[in-house]
Amino acid sequence: MIVVTAPTGQIGSRTLERLVAAGARVRVIVRDASRLRASVREAVEVVEGSHGDVDVLMKAFAGAESVFWLAPPNPRAESVEDAYSGFSRPAAQALAAQGVQRVVAVSVLGRGTPMAENAGYITASLAMDDLLISSGVGYRALAMPSFMENVLRQTDLIRDQGVITSPIAGGRRMPFCAVRDIAAAAAELLLDGTWSGVEEVPLLGAEDLSFEDMAQIMSEVLERPVRFRQVSGEEFTARMTRSGASAAMARGALDMAIAKEAGMDNAVPRTVRTTTPTSFRQWCQEVLKPAVLG
């Protein structure tokens, strides 16, 4: 039995579809089962509730061999620690109590780098990994750079002003990964019942790109000019708080950006194994273009 958390999110839903297509026995934890596609709902066991609730987790993890773990976004959390380790503490308890053997979790790049010591979401995510590992499970941390899908948060800005923004300098080249490739890696690990121990699995996308590179590719795919504009840390955090984020979470996002600009995401060497197939150009053609022009 494989348990999938966050099954209606971008990564969880795609992971779930792959597991169902492979004929795996799957149980999902979801607040509202009606949000699952009917064909998926009929193929899985459903436990309704929050995967931050220990009682829900004890029920969902009973008899499970593997778990896909993803801490949900919580921009209103009082601290980055609350958003990651705080939310995941009941899971560590339930994993140990129910004897789950393996966990595949969405994590981050940066472990072992000096930048990760004060990197906001990054630091908190790595602490979450350590917490879950302490339950005694085999653990695979999908060590992620920034997601290509994060660009979709600026769809209106791209459409209306032809601009993308970031507090990171426009020339800093970094890896970016598509959600579809994260889901593929997660499903492959969840379907494999032979591994144990603790490892990181870096997923670096198809190439390293700067925001200036990305703006050029967007311009070519959208057939309209898109330029990059670097914003100050103050403007970045103010925009987040206006959108409803807590001051602590806005600061955590900025600290993460500062660490990425310092090279944190470039510390893992790019190899055939760490390179994933979806290029940013392909992603723009298949995902961004319909979002902007549709």
How would you sum up this structure, described in words?
This protein has 11 helices and 12 strands. It is an alpha/beta fold and 294 residues long. It has a domain at 2-147 and 177-202: Rossmann fold. It has a 7-stranded parallel β-sheet, with helices on both faces. Strands 7-9-11 form a 3-stranded mixed β-sheet. The longest helix has 19 residues, at 80-98. It is globular.
What keywords describe this structure?
43% helix; alpha/beta; Rossmann fold; single chain; 11 helices; 294 residues; 7-stranded parallel sheet; 3-stranded mixed sheet; 17% strand
CATH fold-level topology of the domain at 2-147 and 177-202: Rossmann fold
Biggest β-sheet description? 7 strands, parallel
Report the uncertain regions. none
Helix content: 40-55%
- According to DSSP, the number of beta strands is 12
Radius of gyration: 19 Å
**Highest-level CATH class of the domain at 2-147 and 177-202:** Alpha Beta
Could you name the CATH homologous superfamily of the domain at 2-147 and 177-202? Answer: NAD(P)-binding Rossmann-like Domain
Q: What is the SS-derived class?
A: alpha/beta
* Strand order of the biggest β-sheet: 3-2-1-4-5-6-10
Question: N-to-C SSE series?
Answer: EHEHEHEHEHEEHEEHEEHEHHH
State the shape. Answer: globular
Strand content: 15-25%
Terminus-to-terminus distance: 40 Å
Q: How many helices in DSSP terms? A: 11
Q: Kindly report the average pLDDT value.
A: 96
Would you identify the CATH architecture of the domain at 2-147 and 177-202?
Answer: 3-Layer(aba) Sandwich
